[in-house]
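Batch manifest, entry 17 of 40.
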Amino acid sequence: MSQFVPDSGRNTIPRILEQSSNGKILTAVTAYDFTSALLIDQTDIDIVLIGDSVASVIQGRGNTLPVTLDEMIYHSKCVARGISKALLVCDLPFLSYQVSPEEALRSAGRVFKESEVHAVKLEGGKVMADTVRYITERDMPVMGHIGLTPQSYHRMGGHRIQGKSAKYGVTSAEELVEDALTLQDAGVFSVVLEGIPSELAARITEMLDIPTIGIGAGSECSGQILVLHDLLGLSQGTPPKFVRRFAELGQESVSALNEYVKAVSEKTFPSASESYSASSHKMPRIKAVS
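Output type: structure tokens
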């Protein structure tokens, strides 16, 4: 006989929607591994995205296009093992959903069956509406993503701000408004707005009944998302304009590694207290083999 499972405190999509409608500003981070997940789980982060940005952040690729569905499922499994509170969303990678709605459904289904996430995210506006509807009508929640869509890297000619003017490689403001409304009608429970003017993001947020999650889209979105490595200062090089480093763990890590090299070279590590001795610990008995 089936039983109701008591509320565990886990964020769910209905809870996220209710909180947002009541004025809560949502917080989200992108993460890729178990260790990061354990740290996040000690905070009040609402949403954790396992992003296809794993291609650049973890794999060292120049863009997100090479990452595979198997890799996204692998990283989602790692993150899911460390998260007990936040809503988990997995990016569908390039070419895992663009061919047909049926293939998109199979890809999404694999993610849900194999990695214990609660939603998938895909990029694109009006052109992806039928695919979104096909998936969501089969009870698989979808988060949308418009504006600067990293999987459109080659069409855009790189990572270019969208919604400023209608020219090749740039989607106009009116097109983005239409994209957002179309995705909402198709069934997404929220939509990421990336790399668009803050005024446009505020306008879209005001028009929608679902939350918007901003990244490089100003402060008037329903919530914000950053890559964990960026906000902790672990990423190398000059960060994008929209990134705020809330710590400088990259510099601290380099200093710690240099201190390790120095301690090993000077034989101050390991110390006596960090070493084992025969007198203080019983040595394991070796059983004779007859």
